[in-house]
Design a protein that fits this description.
With 433 residues, the protein is α/β, with parallel strands linked by helices. 44% of the residues lie in helices and 14% in strands. It folds into three domains: 128 residues, NusB-like (N-utilizing Substance Protein B Homolog, Chain A); 57 residues, Sun protein, domain 3 (Alpha-Beta Plaits, 2-Layer Sandwich), CATH 3.30.70; 202 residues, Vaccinia Virus protein VP39 (Rossmann fold).
Length: 433
């Protein structure tokens, strides 16, 4: 990594953060657009690490600028503010300070801030020398959302906030169709990559040290995918019989569709999503995994049955419902910036509408798994209880402790438990009413 690439990578990180912090953009698409502009995979990995480090704890950097600058930066200085955060984050990431600070000062010139390079240098050196102000580490959580976490999980609030600010392990899902987990673990070992297993996850390997996805042996050929352990449990919760007619109702980006087909290519699976563009991601993922011909992909609103359903019932339906994403803040830290209190009622109403509509597509004796990556009870156990109360032919089926805490109508995993994301699961059986 030469000096110019070091400055350019910091400038790219600043541009991404400026878009997310100051222009309301989402982190994932901004990174997807920015990373390919960097040729060196080490630069791409660094940009990603810096952006996540900033967005997981932005309040401490904001407090530093407030304390150390005689005049606050204006709206026109948003790119400069983002670059300063880039420099601060490198100190938290324990990168070699001299090179990191020098590259960040050079990046000030790259983004057209040559006249302020001295100020950038002075502020970064002060952070290196004095450390950051002591503040509430989770002050960037919206007050309304933190209050809901406290209400729902009073004994777990601080653990949830801390886990949500911590980098997660890298969970892999080994493609059964291309060999078993132990065979792939051996391939990783040959490449010098250490991996551990979780007995509750038959297809999973856990990597505690970060690694570029492209460096995973066989990734491009479909040998392995990245999927959190909590998400991998969904296939077990659904457990459709061999050859079953299956619906993945909100399928994009396609990880759960792919997992089900990896486990049983004989499934007659329909992958549905309201966003046609996001179905392209499902399609490309299935192609990489050599499963391209195994699923029927449809773009439609799952709740509008007249638009897509042919009237033939499904043996198993997966509703991984749109939600607040409060269980995956550590993977999508910009959720805290974009989510509004009014969103929750909208989400709850949408989830109920999807449940009621999709229940009509389930065959008698079949199952529907309702899942979310939320930790809010109104989206999870309250939603499941309300559905059961108004649906006489629905019965909840017990899931074991590997799915998390027993909530009577399902199981709740909180962020960081066993290294998993926050997730809710409810398995519902249709019976004769």
């Amino acid at each position: 990594m030469n000096a110019s690439s070091g400055a350019e990578s910091r400038a790219v990180a600043a541009r991404v953060l400026d878009a997310v912090l100051h222009r309301g953009r989402s982190l994932k698409p901004e990174l997807a657009a920015a990373l390919p502009t960097l040729k060196d995979p080490r630069d791409r990995a660094l940009v990603e690490a810096i952006c996540f480090a900033v967005l997981r704890r932005p309040a401490r950097y904001e407090a530093a600028l407030k304390d150390w600058m005689p005049r606050p930066l204006g709206k026109r200085d948003s790119d400069l503010r983002a670059l300063l955060y880039v420099g601060f984050a490198q100190l938290d990431l324990a990168l070699p300070a001299h090179a990191a600070l020098a590259a960040t000062v050079d990046a000030a010139r790259t983004i057209g801030r040559s006249h302020q390079a001295g100020m950038v240098n002075a502020l970064l050196r002060r952070a290196q020398r004095d450390g950051f102000p002591t503040i509430d580490a989770h002050a960037h959580w919206p007050a309304w959302l933190r209050a809901r976490v406290r209400r729902d999980w009073p004994a777990d609030e601080l653990a949830i906030l801390e886990a949500s600010a911590t980098a997660p392990p890298l969970w892999l899902r080994v493609n059964r169709g291309q060999g078993g987990r132990e065979a792939y673990r051996a391939r990783l070992g040959e490449a010098g990559i250490a991996a551990s297993v979780d007995e509750a996850l038959p297809d999973a390997l856990r990597l505690d040290e970060p690694i570029a996805i492209a460096a995973l042996p066989g990734f491009a050929d479909g040998a392995v995918s990245v999927q959190d352990g909590a998400a991998q449990l969904v296939a077990d919760a659904l457990s459709p019989p061999s050859g079953a007619r299956v619906l993945d109702a909100c399928a994009a980006p396609g990880g759960k569709t792919a997992h089900l087909l990896e486990r049983d290519p004989s499934l007659r699976l329909t992958a549905l999503d309201v966003d046609a563009a996001r179905l392209d991601t499902v399609r490309s993922g299935l192609a990489r995994l050599r499963l391209g011909a195994q699923a029927r992909l449809l773009a439609a609103d799952a709740s509008d049955l007249a638009a897509w359903w042919d009237g033939t019932p499904f043996d198993a339906v997966l509703l991984d419902a749109p939600c607040s994403a409060t269980g995956i803040v550590r993977r999508q830290p910009d959720v805290l910036m974009h989510r509004r209190e009014s969103d929750i009622a909208v989400m709850v109403a949408l989830q109920a509408r999807l449940l009621d509509a999709l229940w009509r597509t389930v065959a008698t004796g079949g199952v529907l798994v309702y899942a979310t990556c939320s930790i809010l009870k109104e989206e999870n156990e309250d939603q499941a209880r309300a559905f059961l109360a108004r649906t006489p032919d629905a019965r909840v089926e017990a899931l074991d402790a590997s799915y998390g805490r027993d909530r009577e109508v399902g199981r709740q995993r909180l962020p960081g438990e066993l290294g998993y994301d926050g997730f809710f699961y409810s398995r519902l059986r249709k019976v004769l009413s």
